[in-house]
Amino acid sequence: MAKCFAMTMKPGSLLNILLLLLTAISAVAQPAPQQVTVPPTGFAGLDQYRASRIAVYTDDYGQLARYRDANAAMKPPAAGDNRVVFFGDSITDGWPIAESFAGKPYVNRGIGGQTTSQMLVRFQQDVVNLQPKVVMILAGTNDIAGNSGPISNANIEANFASLADIAHAHGIRVVFSSILPVHNYTPKSQDFYAQRPMARILALNEWLKGYCAGNGAVYLDYISAVVDDKGLLRRDLADDGLHPNKAGYAIMAPLAEQAIQKALNSD
């Protein structure tokens, strides 16, 4: 009877049955999706932040989508324009560049929370393609905190060097800003301060200073202008201990302008 039944079935029906069987077998063979867990850092706020960024780290690590449309709409710099790109993390992202440098062809390409590893991914799109004369790089604090995972000073330094190499290859002059200090004078500053040991900040700044001296870049020393007598960021310049407020940016702006002019006038 089975033989008779098989012979009377249409070829299309047999094919459909086979496809259904193969689909069912494939579904059974697939392992159950695993839950992604983020290793704890010892800081509840940082753990929550990293957990909230899983989609970013897996789908758009460099966050190229953030400025893609704005970049596409931007015209090439006019002849004689000294376009400058401010490139960095939340300290740059939150800086009202148009207000601090009124009338200047300066462009903000900061993204809050980013590390130098992420910045490398978007450097071509968000800096090189905009054809600036100068790039102002202020980064590293989130690397120290471990926002996208633990990273050694040596690897942070390698990322800095790679950013500079790419810029120099395209005729873009580089200003490396010192990593800003942090304070612990307010309740919301405690975690930021604990995540960013001052010893690491100072060591990386010392490296940046030496790198700039030997590689044709400009070193912008913010620290000397913003620290207090304890060597921490002045309480009046950042409410949360990390991100400059209006008074903080007011101190930083003229120092940045001086560094830009120095870079433009360098050979």
The CATH superfamily bears the name SGNH hydrolase
Q: Give the N-terminus to C-terminus distance in angstroms.
A: 92 Å
Specify Rg, calculated over alpha carbons.
Answer: 25 Å
Question: From the 3D coordinates, which CATH architecture would you assign?
Answer: 3-Layer(aba) Sandwich
Low-confidence stretches: 1-7
Look at the helices and sheets and give the structural class: alpha/beta
β-strand amount? 5-15%
Largest sheet: 5 strands, parallel
Stated plainly, the CATH topology is called Rossmann fold
- Name the helix and strand elements from N-terminus to C-terminus, one letter apiece: HHHHHEHHEHEHHEHHEHH
Count up the domains. 1
What best-fitting shape do the alpha-carbon axes yield?
globular
Number of helical segments?
14
Count the beta strands: 5
Q: Which strand order do you get reading across the main beta sheet?
A: 2-1-3-4-5
Fraction of residues in helix: 40-55%
CATH class categorisation = Alpha Beta
Mean pLDDT figure = 90
Task: Describe the protein.
The longest helix has 19 residues, at 11-29. This protein has helices at residues 2-8, 11-29, 44-52, 54-59, 68-73, 90-93, 97-100, 116-126, 141-145, 153-169, 190-195, 198-215, 223-226, 246-264; strands at 84-88, 106-110, 134-138, 173-177, 218-220. It is an alpha/beta fold and 267 residues long. Strands 2-1-3-4-5 form a five-stranded parallel β-sheet, sandwiched between helices. It is globular and about 80 Å long. The chain is built from 14 helices and five strands.
Compact overview of the structure:
With 267 residues, the chain is of the alpha/beta class. It contains 14 helices and 5 strands.
